[in-house]
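tokens incoming
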């Protein structure tokens, strides 16, 4: 069978700023700072903080290359949660998190949306489920989404899979995703993503592709 002429194969083609968007998932204090929900679960928020610093630098490079950025914010107020979501918290002895008006729901310092950057509020792990994200991306004729944020094995993974199902080229950043319970869990998430749903380059590789594109 002949290959469709429009297939994007090289990373440089996939992440062309003309048709690419960066999706930042759940970079909120409950997941990134000491004292938040992730810290209470025993996750390594120090490592997440280091990832957040890399992400801040990456977003600046995206802005220079005029790649649109979409910030996804989790809101898990009780009124929006399903019975299975409540059951999971009860089963694990966990409290509500990412609640409206709380410190934990705020964006990580330095990763606040800039003027003109869209904020999408979600009530499930999946950033596309019952949100306007797909509509916003389609309006800009986006073909490729670069997925960043937390947690790699849950919300970023769920959103990346849905992006693939919707027909987007999915770029799941290896070093701009975090929050998995162990390095091995992160590696397994990347391996699954690379095998089935998208590609898993580093931030440096993406920026280098942008630079090559802009100089060609």
């Amino acid at each position: 069978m002949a290959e469709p002429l429009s297939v994007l194969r090289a990373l440089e083609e996939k992440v062309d700023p003309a048709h690419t968007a960066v999706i930042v998932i759940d970079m909120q204090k409950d997941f990134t700072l000491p004292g938040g929900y992730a810290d209470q679960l025993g996750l390594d928020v120090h490592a997440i903080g280091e990832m957040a610093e890399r992400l801040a630098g990456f977003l600046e490079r995206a802005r220079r290359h005029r790649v649109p950025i979409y910030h996804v914010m989790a809101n898990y107020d009780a009124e929006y949660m399903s019975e299975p979501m409540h059951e999971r918290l009860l089963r694990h002895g966990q409290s509500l998190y990412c609640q409206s008006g709380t410190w934990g729901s705020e964006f990580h310092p330095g990763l606040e949306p800039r003027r003109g950057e869209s904020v999408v509020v979600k009530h499930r792990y999946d950033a596309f489920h019952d949100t306007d994200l797909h509509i916003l991306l389609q309006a800009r004729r986006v073909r490729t989404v670069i997925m960043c944020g937390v947690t790699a094995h849950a919300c970023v993974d769920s959103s990346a899979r849905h992006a693939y199902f919707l027909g987007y080229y999915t770029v799941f950043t290896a070093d701009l995703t975090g929050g998995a319970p162990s390095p091995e869990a992160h590696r397994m998430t990347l391996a699954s993503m690379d095998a089935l749903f998208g590609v898993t380059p580093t931030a440096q590789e993406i920026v280098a592709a942008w630079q090559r594109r802009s100089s060609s």
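note: The mean pLDDT is 96.
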